[in-house]
Design brief:
alpha+beta, about 140 residues, about 25% strand, 4 helices, seven-stranded mixed β-sheet, single chain
């Protein structure tokens, strides 16, 4: 193998290894207190995004929060004192992680884009299995 071909091959392999590392590394970066997507059963007649048929891979935090709320009191909850919570999300220390991973903030933005009338301030209303939920991002100390 010629010297130049060997160098180009090594350079390509190094670049591929770095790209693979960037894909896996963000999940290990954690800093500060975790953020959660919370789901609280809501009353009223609000415009809402339907999460019943949404992809769990795309909306892992939103669906995790509403399923947690259902598990707390059962399906079709009407109590508003129960709050479901998603798995924790930690921001990266230097902002690198946010570019490579899904976050509760990304999901809330996507839900706002799907149905702007479902957004109310920092919250979004969503339905899941016929129950209306108020979704919000929260940070526990």
């Amino acid at each position: 193998m010629r010297q130049i071909t060997r160098r180009v091959t090594v350079a390509i392999l190094v670049v591929l290894a770095l790209l693979l590392a960037l894909g896996a590394l963000p999940s290990y970066l954690k800093s500060g207190d975790p953020y959660y997507l919370t789901a609280t059963p809501a009353d009223g007649n609000h415009s809402a995004v339907d999460l019943s048929n949404a992809s769990e891979r795309r909306y892992e935090y939103a669906i995790g929060a509403v399923r947690d709320a259902e598990a707390e009191t059962g399906v079709n909850v009407t109590e508003t004192n129960v709050t479901g919570r998603s798995d924790p999300y930690w921001k990266g220390p230097i902002g690198l992680k946010e570019s490579f991973t899904n976050s509760p903030f990304d999901e809330m933005d996507a839900l706002r884009i799907q149905n702007e009338s479902a957004a109310e301030g920092e919250t979004v209303y969503a339905t899941y299995n016929g129950t209306l939920y108020r979704l919000a991002v929260a940070q526990d100390p």
